[in-house]
Amino acid sequence: MLTKKLPSLPSFLLLVSRRASHLTRQQYDVIVVGGGHAGTEAAAAAARVGAETLLVTQKIQTIGALSCNPSLGGVGKGQLVKEVDALDGLCGRAGDWAGIHFTILNRRKGPAVWGPRAQLDRQRYREFIQSELLGTPRLTVLESSVEELLVTEPNPEKTGRHRVAGIRLANETHAISASSVVLTTGTFLSGSLFVGQTTSPGGRIGDAPSSAGLSHTLKERLGLRIGRLKTGTPPRIVKDSVDLSLAELHPPDGHPTPFSFLNTHTRCKPEEQLPCYLTYTTPGVERVVRESLHLNCHIQQDTKGPRYCPSIESRVLRFPGRKHQVWLEPEGVTSDLLYPQGLSMTMPPDKQLCLIREIPAMHRAEIHTPGYGVQYDFVCPTQLSPALQVKSTQGLFLAGQINGTTGYEEAAAQGLWAGVNAARWALSMPPVALSRTESYIGVLIDDLVSRGVTEPYRMFTSRAEFRTSLRPDNADLRLTLKGFEEVGCVSSLRYTEAIRVRDNLQDAMEALETLALSTTTWRKKLPNIHISENKNTSLTGMNLLQYSDVSFEMLASVFPEYLSAYSEFSQRLKIEAVYRPHCDLQKKEIERIQKEENMSLPQDIDYLSLPVSMSQEVRDILNRVRPSTLGAATRLQGITPAAIVHLLNYVRHIG
Ligand code: FAD
């Protein structure tokens, strides 16, 4: 399916509006603010659902920009990419188009926690996303900065909530109205950049922060609770100045595995992939960090940064005397730069140069762009519903880094879901939610809206209780059918493909179940396999496939008339067989949780006057968060099982 022909960048950008006066309408169903990873998925998803959508972003050329590492996926994050793809989002196909080094991480563990990952060519990724947006019906892209969010005052006689009315652009007086607005401003909300002792306003290097007007509306008019977080990025290194012979070579997988369920191969051929390199810090690195601490404002701030992607300063200070990994990763096919993953830093540029030269492979390295840090405002996400709508403001949706997450994949997943719900709101359709039992996207959103964040949130497989069911290989079966039949964000082409896959898998599993033979007969047919069961036991093909040394191809070679038609699905069938006993056990638990998940809690419950048997603290938490389901209430920090029983009884009583 990789048949896409991309128009050359300059020609197609001319087709995208740069001026508000070029817009054919001044009223949209959905306006998305920000063209990062959340915003692009939100805009495309809203348009797919059927909403007339406007994407407003500061610079068209940075649509789809990878602000930090040029890579997509990984453990937990790869699952999100597969799910976004299963819902017809962009990032999986963009990864297949732009990937230059594909690996499956965690391969030594079971396929449920494999992490599909690709190193990306930055330019190709941007081009793909921009071209996709251009080709999306009902979507207009406008290059401008949103100065103000327009909201109506709450009407106490009606909902008592604010309602979104539209936006006003910088340097424009008139409004563009919309039923829904999705804010995806990333690290730009009151953003400040830090290098050494210098601080300047900015959302990312070379980009101004979001306007103060936007922050003002969120804080002062809507009264939203806002927090502050920080992150940083490493210097980019001139490739030719690095002695790669002093680093360990890490080749990609021999056969790149595409992210997208629509693709059978990636654009980059196996032999065209580029390697990564691994090297380590030395005691000299630690010395430079310590000597320059007094010149490093960012590291001195108390603001929380990403714990799982820390700066070299934080790593050295937390684990003194240790040798830390540094990955040298390509930035693109034609790029002259390397990205040193693990060396995010904010000391002055001359000290950055001293630091990298303490690593043998970089003893003569040159810096192209220094590393820097950014601090930004985020909106505490417990103020959102599972549709990612601000509870106190009808029609206002938030997605991405603005909700306290970090990472492209987390942003893309939220963006898609916020875009879907913004469109449904605008088109007077009920909101839709994804549960923890059916997707990582559900886990991500539930964690955000019910627990909130105290540090930048990133996805891990350990966050998902049902990870053996939520596998990267089966995201299409979990989400594509629902995405088409219930949500409306999946094309008929993708739906037809998912139905074909589902039917073939079902037929193949039925065929495997029908092949029931005694262990003696199996031993004769597959003499090289060690079958532990005693000789009178009857085993089906599905049972046999659970053995680690039995592949589907082996069974198909013994029974070609029954099985060879399904060879295309051999790996998926093997995984299904291995996980089936686990998943069958989990099914009951999932059904119980789904019942609980689905029990809605009325939004007008007066929590503060609930029975006194519930502590004041519990009542305060419930009143502040206003969980939309009993399941969400269960996961709130500080809510005891006893409180849940009281709440359940109360809701049954008033229902
Ligand atoms: P972004 O990708 O930041 O996109 C926001 C978009 O909104 C931009 O296009 C901007 O131009 C636009 N915008 C903002 N305000 C307005 C406005 N008023 N009007 C119009 N458009 C507007 N992630 C990691 O996982 N690990 C890391 O180590 C890491 N380090 C990072 C270091 C730095 C310096 C930065 C900047 C980011 C880093 N990230 C890291 C975060 C990663 O880039 C984000 O998680 C991801 O890009 C978030 O996507 P987003 O769509 O929410 O926001």
Automatic annotation (TrEMBL):
<dbReference type="GO" id="GO:0005739">
    <property type="term" value="C:mitochondrion"/>
</dbReference>
<dbReference type="InterPro" id="IPR036188">
    <property type="entry name" value="FAD/NAD-bd_sf"/>
</dbReference>
<dbReference type="InterPro" id="IPR040131">
    <property type="entry name" value="MnmG_N"/>
</dbReference>
<dbReference type="GO" id="GO:0070899">
    <property type="term" value="P:mitochondrial tRNA wobble uridine modification"/>
</dbReference>
<dbReference type="GO" id="GO:0005829">
    <property type="term" value="C:cytosol"/>
</dbReference>
<dbReference type="GO" id="GO:0050660">
    <property type="term" value="F:flavin adenine dinucleotide binding"/>
</dbReference>
<protein>
    <submittedName>
        <fullName>Mitochondrial tRNA translation optimization 1</fullName>
    </submittedName>
</protein>
<dbReference type="Pfam" id="PF21680">
    <property type="entry name" value="GIDA_C_1st"/>
</dbReference>
<keyword id="KW-0819">tRNA processing</keyword>
<comment type="similarity">
    <text>Belongs to the MnmG family.</text>
</comment>
<dbReference type="GO" id="GO:0030488">
    <property type="term" value="P:tRNA methylation"/>
</dbReference>
<keyword id="KW-0285">Flavoprotein</keyword>
<dbReference type="Pfam" id="PF13932">
    <property type="entry name" value="SAM_GIDA_C"/>
</dbReference>
<dbReference type="InterPro" id="IPR004416">
    <property type="entry name" value="MnmG"/>
</dbReference>
<dbReference type="InterPro" id="IPR026904">
    <property type="entry name" value="MnmG_C"/>
</dbReference>
<keyword id="KW-0274">FAD</keyword>
<dbReference type="InterPro" id="IPR047001">
    <property type="entry name" value="MnmG_C_subdom"/>
</dbReference>
<dbReference type="Pfam" id="PF01134">
    <property type="entry name" value="GIDA"/>
</dbReference>
<dbReference type="InterPro" id="IPR049312">
    <property type="entry name" value="GIDA_C_N"/>
</dbReference>
<dbReference type="InterPro" id="IPR002218">
    <property type="entry name" value="MnmG-rel"/>
</dbReference>
<dbReference type="InterPro" id="IPR044920">
    <property type="entry name" value="MnmG_C_subdom_sf"/>
</dbReference>
<feature type="domain" description="tRNA uridine 5-carboxymethylaminomethyl modification enzyme C-terminal subdomain">
    <location>
        <begin position="577"/>
        <end position="649"/>
    </location>
</feature>
